[in-house]
Amino acid sequence: MDQANPHSGAYGREARAGLRDIAPAAIAAIPIGLLFGAVAAAKGLTPAEVGLMSALVFAGGAQFAAIEAWVHPAPIAALAFATFLINVRHVLMGASLGPKIRMTTLEKFLSFFFMTDESWALSERRALDRPVTGAYWAAMVAALYANWLASTTLGAVLGSFLGDPARLGADFAFTALFIGLIAGFGRSRVTLVTVAVSAAVAALVHRFIGAPWHVASGALAGIAAAYLAAGRGARS
Fold first, then answer.
1. 67-76 pLDDT, tens digit each
2. Where do transmembrane segments lie in this chain (predicted)?
3. Distances (CA, A) of 78 to 65, 82, 84, 222
4. 157 CB-near residues (< 8 Å, 6+ apart)
5. Rg (CA), the chain
6. First-residue to last-residue Cα distance in the chain
7. Where are the domains of the chain?
8. Contact 50, 37 (CB under 8 A)
């Protein structure tokens, strides 16, 4: 261990753990990033513009929603509102994860820009039996951020050469990833009720009302279900 910095060994171990845990999510994100880049290029965006969008937004669901509605001139107000509805869940995710991560308030404020569903879920799972350190978080989000920028930009460069990812089942990659993340939280009664209610409400809203309302509706229904299923003792 470095005598000048006795904590360097611990930082290294935490960073390696973060990279190890995020690796499956990063791999699953590659076909999705390539697909987004190809779709964005078909809408008229250059590879540089696609890379800039990924760097500034860094939210796959919101980026797909925006690019699907992309016209010239772009409907800025509509795109901003759709992005807000899709990403408002990050307020709840940040409130849940904030007390469990070892960072100052300023560090949390800055670093939570890079929060994704995957990094949040993996951190919450890690927090079940050990603290979530800044080194663990930084390694995860840096790897996923660089991966998303590279894959979306490459997708824009390759464009139509990619073909339809659905032929290879690549469009199911994120769905499979989220199923795995949910399974990692265990099978308690509260977890099962929360997931079932959230999924049912999101599916119904998507079917009868449409996107992006199903995202916020599913999240709010899941919160309500978890609160009611936990029982009075747990809530207090």
1. 876 767 766 7
2. 22-41, 50-70, 76-98, 135-162, 168-185, 192-209, 215-234
3. 10, 6, 10, 26
4. 37, 41, 47
5. 19
6. 45
7. 8-184, 187-236
8. yes
Q: Which residue has the tokens 């979306």?
A: 152
pLDDT averaged over every residue in the chain: 81
Burial code (b: 16+ CB inside 10 Å, e: under 16) for 213-222 equals bbbbbbbebb
Single-letter amino acid code for the residue at 228: L
What are 116-172's pLDDT values in tens digits? 988 999 999 999 888 899 999 999 999 999 999 999 999 999 876 665 555 656 556
Which alpha helices (DSSP H) does 7-116 contain, by range? 8-42, 47-57, 60-68, 76-87, 89-97, 105-111
Which residues does 139 contact at the CB level (< 8 Å), separation at least 6?
14, 15, 16, 17, 18, 19, 22
Count CB neighbours of 128 within 10 A: 10
pTM of the model: 0.70
Nearest to 218, CA basis, from 197, 190, 193, 198 = 198
Angle, in degrees to the nearest 10, between helices 117-126 and 134-158: 160
d(CA 162, CA 18) in angstroms, rounded, equals 31
Under 8 Å between Cβ of 89 and 178 = no
User: Which H or E run includes 133?
Assistant: strand 132-133
